[in-house]
Amino acid sequence: MQQLGMLVVAVLLSADTSNGRDWSVAVGKANGEKVIVRCRSSFPQSVVRPQFATLAAITWKYNSPNGMPSDDTKSEMDTLEDGIVSAVESADQAYLAIAVTGGGVREWEFYGRSQEQFSRLAANALARAPAVSTVFQSDPTWSSYGRFAACTK
Fold first, then answer.
1. Can you tell me the distance from the alpha carbon of 19 to that of 93, in angstroms, rounded to the nearest whole number?
2. Angle 78-80-82 (CA atoms, 0-180°, nearest 5)?
3. Alpha-carbon distance 26 to 56, whole Å?
4. Order of all β-strands in the sheet with 8-16
5. Which of 29, 79, 87, 134 is deepest in the core (most CB within 10 A)?
6. What digits encode the pLDDT tens for the residues 44-73?
7. Three-state SS string across the chain, please?
């Protein structure tokens, strides 16, 4: 939620369906640094927004001279993301909606059924990550997700 507030999306780059999910990818700038946004374009039919009203924002801060993660850090982030996605999506409890990378931060935004279920299912993956923070809030209208027009097209 911190990263998302300062972003100005400049260019829609592509749609990525390589992992069976539809994603829009955009590049923008925040405070003069490159920022990459991935927005999920479609969700399974089981995702009824009012039933997935818990927003879980996971933040990983990293040091980088150019604001983007190193290859090693990116690989670790991808492993974390894959672990969380596998745990929560296979149980139909939460879905990754947005990932923002840049300015020394990657933030993932998941929409889930409950904070308790998300925390329980994601615990193993989060325990293996370096210091990441998770903030939960109620967002039944998915307003955070809706701030990115590329996500909803």
1. 19
2. 65
3. 22
4. 8-16, 23-30, 33-40, 94-102, 105-112, 54-61, 132-138
5. 87
6. 999 999 999 999 999 999 999 999 999 999
7. CHHHHCCEEEEEEEEECCCCCCEEEEEEEECCEEEEEEEECCCCCCCCHHHCCEEEEEEEECCCCCCCCCHHHHHHHHHHHHHHHHHHHHCCCEEEEEEEEECCEEEEEEEECCHHHHHHHHHHHHHCCCCEEEEEEECCCCHHHHCCHHHCC
Tokens found for residue 35: 């920022």
Q: Is the separation of the CB atoms in 40 and 23 below 8 Å?
A: yes
Amino acid code (one letter) for 41: S
User: Which residues on neighbouring strands pair with residue 23, listed in sequence order?
Assistant: 16, 40
Per-residue pLDDT tens for 66-112? 999 999 999 999 999 999 999 999 999 999 999 999 999 999 999 99
Query: Cβ(80)–Cβ(96) under 8 Å?
Result: no
Which region holds residue 40: left if phi is over 0, alpha if psi is between -120 and 50, else beta?
beta
